[in-house]
Amino acid sequence: MSKVKNSTPTIIVIFGASGDLAKRKLFPAFQNLFLDGRMPEKFQIIALGRAEKSDEEFRNYVLENLNTFSRKATLSPDETKNFVSHITYLKHDIDKEESYHELNSKLTSIDELFGIRANRLFYLSIAPSFISTISVYIKKIGLTPNVSQDRIIIEKPFGYDKTSAIALNEMLSQTFKEEQIYRIDHYLGKETVQNILAFRFGNSMFEPLWNRNFIDFVQITVAEEVGVEERGGFYEGVGALKDMIQNHLLQILCMTAMEAPASLGADDIRNRKADVLRSIRRIKPEEVDHYTVRGQYDAGFIKGNPVAGYRQDKGIAPDSNTETYVAMKIYLDNWRWQGVPFYLRSGKRMQEKQSSIVIQFKPVPHSSFSYGNEGMTPNRLIINIQPSMDIKLQFMTKKPGLSLSLRPAEMVFDYFQCSTMSPEAYETLLSDALAGDPTLFMRWDQVEQAWDAIDTIQEVWKNNAPVNFPNYKAGSWGPEAADELLARQGHAWVSNTATENEKVK
Ligand code: BG6
Questions:
Q1: Where is the active site (predicted)?
Q2: Is-contact 390 355, C-beta < 8 A?
Q3: Which fold has domain 188-501?
């Protein structure tokens, strides 16, 4: 969001610099910001890891991975080498005070080199269980004393329920002020997610229709083809509700349903999002089955290739009850949305990778037209977040010919037509964190409300083992019960592509 480039010299400290996130996302993002001239002139990345390594060894490791994971990998080898020369490796033991003293000396020596007290950005790319230890030592050694200069980025999951999130936040607040804490949800960095705000509040023609008077229902889908890959150990204790719904899907819901902010200032936007989370109708334990569906994938085929079931995947218990799919119906108790169902679904090993929002408008009150074989298609606005990045408006037109019958048509805005090289989500978010713009990061009350909205569901699921897992085939669109969830209200999951292919997901 931030237009302002941070030009203050900055030191970035990455805890877990040898980990998966760092190699796939963080280093490529910093490299692309560097190549785009978005890094401050003076900056240094201190990469912390357990193993003994020289700067040279670590830089070579980063170089190799940039070749694989960076969107600009092939563009400029010299500049890439120039980029890695800004990286210093430091062996670090999270549990040892001594390591933090060494880090402190390193920070001070870089400040001296820069001739100024640099900004400090700490990135915690580590398992949540280490956050507390790191935070305690950062306070003890005094590594982040300047509220306006020193920041910390925390990855999700932020806690595992509301109670643990409150405890984590209280612990962090002993070391950091709220304005120093940047809780990341990478979906908020995606171009197409940010575009929801631009689309809604940069145009006058959609907003008057954006409410219960005109909208029949809203669907938000984040479907993945991948399974749990190498992350079985992590995913087993988490599941789709906490991994995807509590954060990514609720954030998309906020962007879709929020009121217009008074300004684009961080707090104005985050206030309006927090309102949405607060207005999610809390359901009673005995209603959980009525409003939600959970699923787990069985063996199946994705694009013709056989894939194993979740329980056969690496690191997964053979009798695991972790859900890999969630569908749910949400109501927002406010003036704008009263009575409009928001259907959310997310799953792994689905038929195709697809993140989209479908806004389905109410049917015409009366029509004398005939509709050929396709039937009447309600007006829809479809916002494709990924991998397609487009906005489609579907409406009825006259079928060419002598009779006055109708057929569906659509108008499309395709992101790829105006830009082939959008920044990656992490580039946007890191650039904002460097510039001290927290707009796209989760404020504490948002995280708390998001947990509050799903805590009852996870509690009920924990205490009532599913009886039918696995209940959907890899390569399908999830359990049948998810179709029934909508069918009860005469609705169906809508394809994000074809107008002709009405009822096909
Ligand atoms: C992460 C989840 O936050 O988002 C993963 O932990 C998931 O399980 C990923 O695969 C999806 O992100 P993206 O950007 O690939 O849609």
A1: 248
A2: no
A3: Dihydrodipicolinate Reductase; domain 2 (3.30.360)
